[in-house]
Amino acid sequence: MQNDVGVAAWVRRWWHQPDQYDWLSDYLAARHLQRLSRLLIASVVVVLGVVPIVMLFSPSGPQGQVHRTVAIVMSALAFGGACSWLAGWPSRRQSALFTVGANAGVTIAVLIAGTPATGLLACATFAPIAGYVGLYHSSKLLAATLLNALVTTVFAGVRIAAAGDTAMAIGHVLGLLIAVLALPFGSQLLLHLLSLDARMSDTDPLTGLRNRRGYDQSALQLVAAADKSQSQWLAVMLVDLDRFKQINDMHGHGYGDTVLLAVADNLIRRSAMDSVVARLGGEEFLIAELTESNAPVACAERLREAVAEMPFGVTASVGVAAVPISDIAGTSAVATIKQLGESADAAMYEAKRAGGNQVRYRAATSNHN
User: Fold this and answer.
1) What CATH number did the domain enclosing 332 receive?
2) Is the pLDDT assigned to residue 368 strictly greater than 50?
């Protein structure tokens, strides 16, 4: 019974863990590996795009005008995807759309294959797709990819069995599924090994968010990239979960980790595009966000709601402090970011003393040298 609970807790943690796209992208960029990665991925996509064209000249390839047209369109889309990788590193959303498109492309390739054996062979392409998703994206997207691979591969196997070779169908389907499953979990093992380097320096090992060191660096980059001609403010928010120790005491630390992972995921989802989300340790999260002059409290309220709306019965006290971006001189950015964090921390304790699940604002002034 205890083992069943342990497995269920592990599955929950795996299911709710946030994707690793941001920190792995930063890791590659810091080590000047993004360009090489883009070239490798683009090369693989180009090769996959050539395959449908080549199969047009094979008796085992797509038959009929409709299927042949679909194959040509698939090749064109693959070449377009390769060009997008060559153009630059994609955003998280662009990368996710790329994987969804790749999944759909393989499924269509199986459906339009001229022979059952060719369709089953096409299912092998799910392996690198699943490996990519396992390395960069969330468990939810990986589960969807594996489910699609399972259904499509079994369908291709059924076609072979219906043609009279059941033994070949079973053997090849099992072999392909093992390969498709091995690559994403091998990718996640690689991710764990990389984390020994990357996460220890800039990233929180539980949630995948930035740690204090990563936050300080990213917040400076956020300020440096801001358009000082606009009326933007830098808002810093300290989010502290209320009575989190009681959750650990009542349900155990495994359940507490699940809550922290869910909170991290929700904070990322509800934060603006121009933001930095970090976990300082324990149940404290620190967020820096570019916002309008009249919006810091609204931003903090949005994050408070992001925690309160979860099904775990957890709430948060949120402190916020803000200054105009135009008031932050280049040499004073480090001191200003530190002061905003201290002011947000003080405001958070005011919210906690008032009963929790509240937002408090504390004015802050920038430092000038």
Assistant:
1) 3.30.70.270
2) no
